[in-house]
Specification:
The complex is a heterodimer of chains A (about 100) and B (about 450). With about 100 residues, chain A is α+β, with helices and mostly antiparallel strands. Helix content of chain A is about 30%, strand content about 30%. Chain A has four helices and six strands, in the order βαββααββαβ. With about 450 residues, chain B is of the alpha+beta class. Chain B has a ten-stranded mixed sheet with strand order 12-13-9-8-1-2-3-7-4-20, sandwiched between helices. In chain B, strands 5, 6, 15, 16, 17, 18 and 19 form a seven-stranded antiparallel sheet that branches. Chain B has a three-stranded antiparallel sheet with strand order 10-11-14, with helices on one face. Classes of the chains: A alpha+beta (about 100), B alpha+beta (about 450).
């Protein structure tokens, strides 16, 4: 078991407009891409972010060795309860997920 | 063939001057730069102001005005002043007027305005011309009337109308990031899929290449595709850097909605022409049946004061959560008692920086920190009240003991006065599109001469 962040090249997160968040996992190699694609279920990601799995959009892009997830922002950008204006830190939560 | 030179992702972010010169030597047909985004939050739209320094904007905008004069082609900026309201457009117009005088330029300016009146949007809502996008907030006539600013995002049609005036400089209010780049290739009848795709790739300048902070990129559009060339010597575009830019700030990396249709890049092909240029073909534009423009709106969401105390004492760091929970209960009771407020009239939130301020209950790492910043955020309906409540919170953050038996502790305050009064705060309240029968219906165009 290793942290996802230790297997891949980079994980980044950002707003996709004020109402959506998007997280890009740059796996770096086809091998890492396959490992993450098979080892990281949409349900698991939904659990990390505490959102219903059906609200997540999942994209597998083998040509870039990228796995991408988009989700409605749990708090609208800039709302009083929002902690992260640019959605910058969400990547860290996924980086720390353990992968087989 | 249309060559669009893009100096950077926004004036205020800086660009490599030598790269801009190299771009001018490539004989561009237009210089296009995006001036804004919602990415810095609702306050800029709420207040109708720019997030960037006026001095930085002026220095960089002057450089672009000089580049335009040298190249003899139009210079277009979209979403002037971060939010693209009329007030932000006027701010950049003032800067433009000053520069024109200072450098002795005589320029024809076309101004495209995107601000919407509350009544116009309320009427459109009544007529069922507003349609929600995914995860849109609920709206009502009352809510629409309360917006401090509403803007509509212009597309290529409105930019084309501005370009047709023959203006030297086009200062546009809120537009889509891509419209200012796609407009000219579309006006010349080039491949629409390539026009929009190339515009999306180029909208953040050299962010689609290595050494992204160099800024400048040239996109060459033709009948079947487009070519990306970064202008800094140290910057290279590769099929990976270019195609990966479709991921950036996009909830869907293959589909991009724009006024009048959508771009589909599912079958796009990215080919390296050499070690620094990329050719892209196979992008598709699918026109829509109705013409819509996206709306953005902001409403006042209260006033805030913030306090920060730093905990370094081992026992308090270890028990910080318990400490702030107790402070919140006691301070809330005091506010209710002394100000006669209901608990719904105000908010006190305490975030522990170093422990879980980024994620709250979602935080999965439980490692013990060395120090913690306790950030108290007070929200109320006026600044006077927010400040008053922050002043009640102050003695707790300074002296509150974990137990009543111990000697009174004192914690580190970084500032005096301790409270930071943030003033008005705002909330985004629209994620909708507005249906138009004519693209110019929600926009206005004015032509003026400076110098």
């Amino acid at each position: 078991m290793a942290n996802l962040g230790a297997i891949v090249e980079k994980v980044r997160s950002k707003n996709a407009g004020p109402f959506w968040l998007t997280i890009d996992i740059f796996c770096g190699t086809p091998r890492a891409f396959t490992q993450i694609r098979d080892g990281l279920s949409t349900e698991r990601v939904a659990k990390v972010f505490a959102v219903p799995p059906e609200t997540l959009k999942r994209f597998e892009i083998p040509s870039l060795n990228v796995l991408k997830f988009s989700l409605p922002r749990p708090e609208t950008q800039g709302a009083v309860a929002d902690r992260d204006m640019h959605g910058a830190s969400w990547a860290a939560l996924l980086s720390e997920v353990k992968i087989n | 063939m249309v060559r669009v030179l893009i100096p950077s992702g926004a004036p205020g972010l800086n660009y490599d001057k030598a790269a801009l010169e190299r771009g001018l030597a490539c004989k561009p047909d237009i210089i296009a730069i995006d001036g804004g985004s919602t990415d810095s939050g609702p306050a800029y739209l709420g207040r109708g102001v720019s997030k960037y320094s006026r001095a930085s904007t002026k220095v960089e905008w002057r450089g672009l005005m000089e580049a335009r004069a040298k190249a003899g082609v139009p210079l277009v900026i979209g979403t002037a002043g971060t939010c693209g309201t009329d007030s932000a457009v006027d701010w950049l117009l003032d800067i433009t007027r000053e520069i024109a005088v200072e450098i002795g330029q005589s320029v024809k300016i076309a101004v495209l305005r995107s601000s919407q009146s509350n009544d116009y949007i309320t009427q459109a809502y009544r007529n069922n011309h507003l349609h929600p996008l995914p995860n849109a907030p609920d709206i009502s006539e009352t809510r629409l009337q309360k917006c401090t600013n509403i803007v509509a995002l212009a597309g290529a049609e409105q930019i084309s109308t501005a370009l047709e005036t023959g203006a030297d400089i086009i200062i546009a209010g809120r537009t889509t990031d891509t419209a200012i780049i796609a407009a000219l290739p579309l006006m010349r009848g080039l491949n629409a899929g390539a026009a929009w795709h190339g515009a999306k790739i180029g909208e953040c300048g050299a962010l689609c290449a290595t050494n992204p902070q160099s800024g400048v990129v040239l996109i060459e559009f033709d009948d079947s595709g487009f070519t990306v060339t970064p202008m800094a010597e140290t910057s290279r575009a590769t099929p990976h850097t270019v195609s990966a830019h479709m991921l950036y700030e996009n909830s869907d990396p293959f589909i991009l909605y724009e006024p009048g249709g959508h771009l589909d890049v599912t079958h796009a092909e990215y080919t390296a022409l050499d070690n620094r240029r990329v050719r892209v073909t196979g992008s598709k534009w699918i026109p829509s049946d109705r013409y819509t423009v996206k709306l953005e709106g902001a409403v006042l969401a209260g006033y805030q004061s913030v306090l920060i105390a730093l905990l370094r004492d081992e026992r308090y760091v270890a028990n910080a959560k318990k400490w702030v929970d107790d402070i919140k209960v006691k301070c809330t009771a005091k506010v209710v008692d002394r100000l006669g407020l209901s608990v719904d009239d105000f908010g006190i939130e305490l975030r522990l920086i170093g422990e879980d301020a980024s994620f709250g209950e979602l935080e999965s790492c439980k490692d013990a920190p060395k120090e913690i910043g306790a950030m108290g955020i007070v929200t109320a309906e006026s600044q006077e009240l927010a400040t008053e409540i922050a002043q009640m919170l102050n003695p707790y953050l300074l002296h509150h003991p974990l137990t009543s038996e111990e000697e009174q502790p004192t914690f580190a305050f970084p500032f005096s006065p301790a409270e930071l009064n943030r003033g008005a705060i705002y909330a985004f309240c629209l994620n909708h599109v507005l249906e138009l029968s004519d693209p110019m219906d929600a926009f206005s165009l004015e032509v003026m001469n400076f110098g």
